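Go through this one:
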Amino acid sequence: MVYLVVGVDHASLAPWHANIAARNVGRAVRRAVERAAAAGVDLVVAAVIGPGSAVMAHPVPEPAAALRAA
């Protein structure tokens, strides 16, 4: 399945998006973060769009308390 992953760069707040082929939402998010990191982007995922333009719930990789401040 192909997901549209949308987010921003943590440091600059520049928008980022990519179509990611994956078996499920979690894998799509991981692949998007890896692809963004390869391009020098510290990705913060804002949304994952699936089939029929449905906004998909995606797992958060770390608790909010562990997130670093901008």
About this structure: The mean pLDDT is 86.
